[in-house]
């Protein structure tokens, strides 16, 4: 068994930082949202692979304060997989025909740095 | 630590668990595995969400979608539709009783809108069996701050400034109580958590222990540090098996982390904590009886002084607070006394948790700021009276409290206002009664409870409550005498004044307040042999309306004592002398010709 004892207030604070991710998905603070189209059309076009790529990328980058949600078909099935990014206070940006390779770019450029990935852009909904 | 995109919170409070939530949780795990979602969706058992009426409750984050009355067979649909495809399952959303609208999000539900969840902020939000989740929400930071940065005296000063008063019923200043124990000489002191919640219809403390046990532990540790105690007991009734299990886990995990035991966080502060299971006697909620019970003696109160702060458990200085009081402590120390004192009224600070039960649409656990009105609790949080019947009274403070009537609806809920109206804050039971409740019967119910729970040590409580109960029983059976009301009043006042402990000292309250506000109901029972609410079985009269009766003979054939006579196709008559008031005739009448009054 690993040593679990907390020996000082500093240790306790470090543990709090580490455990913050445990409940972050439940917090209602403003955070970046990634929304994936998971209608039958989205799933058929490979949205599950996109989901795996998103979760993997967030995990690698330790981006634990991003909410990942799913949504149904919005009627633009030929453009699936669709992936939306909403940064707090900014409009909802929709990317289309997303591939797992695009996910890395969208997350590093848009989610982290706030720069929209123009070549995958489908539109913005205000 | 793996990243989960969604969290499914399933209520495992006693209410939801008895509604089948463990099976719901198991089904979630199975279904998620089938869909290969078990690595991205986390399933957690939490404490009570408060809306016990609509359990089992399931909340899905990050959206915060609130599903109510979820059955195992609904789970596959939630997994497939919501978690896999992102479509909320509308039919399982909570339907708001006032507007009859479906509500999607947790925070949009009016039941929660008026609440101010401080003590309950972790209840239904974290996994109570995982200390890391508590720590992620600032858990044990207050303890760290107190024992490394503050002197014991400064902690007590902060508690005094916060204005926190005992949540177990007495309403005594917590900071002041701590200062008495701190000032007592002696190198061995104890702190005790009173978790012997015994009022009928009260489950605040149980829910806190089940939903956020570490908050109670942390509060006790802070208190122990402030008063110089190194050992503590949680006295919890054995009827709360889940609360005890969660406490055991919490104590085990805190000990593993070194938060309990010797030299906490590298300081000189050491603290050990034990759980003492009580056998469920109501009187053991009284502090001197509680300590006797921990010592292995028969649970009976003794006269005070000496107060526990001077001579308590095993004769040592001891401080006893109840669960909710302890659970308030970490928040006060972390956010500061001013922050806490900003809530509530001039003399009653902070919030109070109530167990809202009886004839309201939303029963459950509510936490409201002090000073809120009864009307807001009953109509806005509680959603009004079931079947939109007429509000009659609320019994506040359980069997030790009193009733409040319509004219008190706009009374602010704080210690002083309630006492002035003849009720007490009590530990927080709030039973709503409507026009179909008989107040004499309600008073009898509570007195039956206290009479049965009287320990028998002092005469006023042992004999007096028995006499009062005899009179009440007589009245509800139609044998009351006009002088009974004066006798009740006299006995009640005597018992209040002369009983040894608060059990007897408050037992007459339900009778005295109903006598004050509903004397006419007592008089109707005695003088007219009639129960205005139609609740007292012995005083009921079933009658057949000859205009409506079609003479089908169904009532006569179903009457177990054959007291209904009449010819076929002619109106029937009930012999009141023989009638046993079973109601079979009324239930069987096809045309509704039979009424009870």
TrEMBL record, chain A:
Coiled coil: none annotated. One of its GO terms (molecular function) is metal ion binding. InterPro entries: Thioredoxin-like_sf. Transmembrane segments: none annotated. Its EC number is 1.12.1.3. Gene3D superfamilies: Glutaredoxin. The keyword Transcription regulation does not apply. This is NADP-reducing hydrogenase subunit HndB. It comes from bioreactor metagenome. The lineage of its organism: unclassified sequences, metagenomes, ecological metagenomes.
